[in-house]
Specification:
By secondary structure, the protein is an all-beta fold. The protein contains no helices and 11 strands. Strands 2, 4, 5, 6, 9, 10 and 11 form a 7-stranded mixed β-sheet that branches. The chain has a 4-stranded antiparallel β-sheet with strand order 1-3-8-7, with no helix packed on it. The chain starts with a strand and ends with a strand. The relative contact order is 0.32.
Length: 118
């Protein structure tokens, strides 16, 4: 059974940092792109960052560039280091996995809440 399990969310103040982790199990994800998405209250889920399995190239949405960094242990774990957090970063953060050459994200975690107070 494939599972993605996020951890590391919490309540912080503006300017603080958090590190989210996503543990993958049930298959080998080394060739998969791994990504982070978020959904704020009343808004649609949006892309945050991704890292490819082959080559380890990373991509970010503009609003978090320079503040967030995605990294991976190729087989089992992907992290999202979030610095200089702002209230607008408040959301449920989801980990996802996408197979090579596919356009859809195949697997999703259950999400972890990040709340940033001003």
């Amino acid at each position: 059974q494939v599972q993605l399990v996020e951890s590391g969310g919490g309540l912080v103040q503006a300017g603080d940092s958090l590190r989210l982790s996503c543990a993958a199990s049930g298959r080998t994800f080394s060739s998969y792109s791994m990504g982070w998405f978020r959904q704020a209250p009343g808004k649609e889920r949006e892309f945050v960052a991704q890292i490819t399995g082959i080559g380890g190239s990373s991509y970010y949405t503009d609003s978090i560039k320079g503040r967030f960094t995605i990294s991976r242990d190729n087989a089992k774990k992907v992290d999202l280091q979030m610095n200089s957090l702002q209230p607008e970063d408040t959301a449920v953060y989801y980990c996802a996995a996408r197979a090579l050459f596919k356009s859809t994200w195949d697997y999703w975690g259950q999400g972890t809440q990040v709340t940033v107070s001003s």
